[in-house]
Amino acid sequence: MVHLIFFCHLSRHIWLASPWNIQTKALNCSNPLDGLKFLWSLEDNNSAASPVVDYQIILLFASILLDLLWKYKNSITHQGPRCDPSALFETIFQSNSSFFAPKLAAAAHSSRSWHPPPSGWIKINSDAAIGEDVAVICSVARDDLGSTLCCKSKRLGSSLPLFAEGLAVELAIEMACNARWPAGWPAVVFESDSKSFVEAINLRNSAAWIISSLVDNCLLKFSQIPFWTVLFAPRVCNSLVHNFARWSLSHVGDSFFYFVLPDLDVLES
């Protein structure tokens, strides 16, 4: 089992391509307990130069990896179809995201205010504000302590509300992909108060033709983020970015990016 999860050719490539860029080839691990100690040590060695490692996330990653590699091994043994490594890699991340999604959704639905993401995750809220001849889309990223990491606003021409809300979600995805880590933020919760667009993303389709291509674009960009989920957030849970968007209508030019906004929390009220 230890060889399969850490040392076989396929698992080594998957660990190296993971958000943590782990090289297992020289790992001194001869039994499952050594493997668990190694995974635990990754959380203790968090630094400002690499994505934050949360033990729950990485242990789940390892468990799903072991399960899928075992099935892949059995498939080859019994002359079944060979698995495309890239497809296996994508399945691992989809399984991780699917595991966390119900828990994150339950927390969001039971809250009457903004709720922080789990440890090791980032939450990005997005919203749009529509003026007479202009629209503004905004996104705000916060960590599990509720600290604001960065914000972005972008001015558009006149836009239909649903399309503008979708563009705001796309802006949030781009923010996550272009974050300070080389591979972006590895685990992100996206929240929007546009129930229609959130449902279109989660159902992988759209009944509204005006956002169908936008949904496809968002799903394509999500592939760059290992762990992600998109949730509907009522206005009361999305008030910071909502007020930021309203403020940006009269204060922001074409585009503006904030790394630090110490006074942004006043917009919460």
Notes on the protein architecture:
The protein is α/β, with parallel strands linked by helices and 269 residues long. Helices cover 48% and strands 16% of the residues. It contains nine helices and six strands, in the order αααααβββαβααβαβ. It has helices at 2-7, 9-17, 32-44, 55-77, 85-109, 161-177, 195-202, 209-222, 239-251; strands at 122-130, 135-142, 148-156, 187-192, 227-232, 255-258. Strands 5-4-1-2-3-6 form a six-stranded mixed β-sheet, sandwiched between helices. β1 and β2 (135-142) form a beta hairpin. α4 (55-77) runs antiparallel to α5 and α6 packs parallel to α8 (209-222). The protein starts with a helix and ends in an 11-residue tail after the last strand. Mean pLDDT is 77; it is low at 47-51.
What's the tally of helices? Answer: 9
Distance between the termini: 53 Å
Largest sheet: 6 strands, mixed
Helicity range: 40-55%
Main sheet: strand order = 5-4-1-2-3-6
SSE-based structural type: alpha/beta
Morphology: elongated
Indicate the mean pLDDT. 77
Order of helices and strands: HHHHHEEEHEHHEHE
Strand segment tally: 6
Helix-strand blueprint:
Elements: H1 2-7, H2 9-17, H3 32-44, H4 55-77, H5 85-109, E1 122-130, E2 135-142, E3 148-156, H6 161-177, E4 187-192, H7 195-202, H8 209-222, E5 227-232, H9 239-251, E6 255-258
Parallel strand pairs: 1-4, 4-5
Antiparallel strand pairs: 1-2, 2-3, 3-6
What's a quick, concise take on this entry?
The chain is of the alpha/beta class and 269 residues long. It has helices spanning 2-7, 9-17, 32-44, 55-77, 85-109, 161-177, 195-202, 209-222, 239-251, and strands spanning 122-130, 135-142, 148-156, 187-192, 227-232, 255-258.
